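ingest -> fold -> write
write: protein_1
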Amino acid sequence: MEIEQITHLPPQMAALEKEAVAEGFRFLTRLISDWNSGATRFDAPGECLMAAYLSQQLVGIGGMSVDPFTPIRTGRLRHMYVTPTSRGQQVGRRLINALLAHASMHFESVRLYTDTFGGTAFYLRCGFARTEDAQATHIVQLRKL
């Protein structure tokens, strides 16, 4: 498996989006739209977009951005998706670890929002804690900068 930081949406992104939509997730559609319009490119300080590949096939994606709902030094995990056939193979965990390693150089904490039971269980297994906030369901503390 390979995890890499990307600066352009991969050619396989349409197929990944199709799988996400089939599961009822529209956030990859929003990612593509925002990317194409220039609204979100994960290019501000501390931000990044990473892709996961198995046998050169795109099987996951996730982004780290500045959290617009909190004070400075807080990142936001966004657009995290792993194909159903790749779940249970550590793809998501390795993608999260890579994103958090990047975030630790720029942020003191990372927050995210999920509205699924599976997402909640996954993020708890990855070290996030629940948080009571209208804009975030989970948070993880990183090192102090």
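write: protein_2
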Amino acid sequence: MANEKVKKLESLKAEVERLQKEKENTIESIKKDFQEKTVVFIDMVDSTQFKTEHADESDVWILRLFQFSNIVASAIQGCKGIVVKYIGDEVMGVFENVNDAKNLIGRISEIENNLLEITGFETRIKITVDYGPVYMMNFDGHISPDPQGLTVDRCARIAKYNQKSCVLTSVNFKDVSSDMHWCNLGKVRLKGIGEEYIYQLEKQTIILEEKIEISKSEYDAKNKLLEQYKKALEEKRPEEVKKIENSDEYDAVEDLIGEINKLIEDAGVDSSYYARFIFLYESTDGWEKYNSYEGKVFNSLIDSGLVRVSDENDDFYILNVEKKRNSKILQKLDELQELMKSLELDEDLYDMSITDADFWKNKIGYDVIR
């Protein structure tokens, strides 16, 4: 009977190892399939206003939208790009070659003139472009693969600052199109991404203004908080005033946690084990023993160089602080800790440390205890 249990345990262990290997192979395959591409969003400006003005003539605005989509798609394809999808009054394209994308964005006036001639209405567009690694994902029902990644997210965030007849980009595309004249508009915080510089083609006509997107429930909550603040001031309740004044810092905490999460998730490794090694580094125990029998394997982290062999023992691995991604995460964790220390309210939520496993589980989203 004992031998049967041993065989069953060994069989289970072999299955775990097989599944782990299959997962690692999939991760490696995904990492290899990331490609440097140029992403472009082309939007029709003031389309909602046009629909309102022609509310009783739905055929007019629908035909204009149809013509816009066809003309913009033809422009993308004519510059050797691929139309990825149509999102309302916006067309998304992707380019293999940077020069082809440059050709498209340099033709913004030509596209607008074509739209005027064919639709019979003045039609202004705005183009937002970005460059970087994307994963071309195939979805059921989509003819073209859909690019996924930070590059797409960043491009979509920058597009919200764009205006009619303008082209905006990030430093990433600006650097690979240095022969074009780009004006630095300044730095803004993009939701879920962090601070980024934005550039406008040719000349500056856009003044950057911080844009904050919140849901109606968040908006209502902030208005309610403002009323409470006014009331607390009138009734001279300093502790309540201080509590409300510090509330904006919670948003900064959540933003930092989001940035840390993204750095962990985008590493292309076992994110739960990656988070554990970061936690171990911040806590008193900085190492983890490689033990395939106990299922403690983290080959993807070893292969990527995010962890390295301990100087004291070859069986133990520690976080490699020389890796740029690791140093960036550690820096943001230090910022997070300092910010949480400054909060003197809601102690149950933020009276925790980055060395606290419960904080990692409840706020960052990783169970770092194994």
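write: annotation protein_2
The longest strand covers residues 125-137.
Residues 246-364 form one domain.
pipeline exit 0
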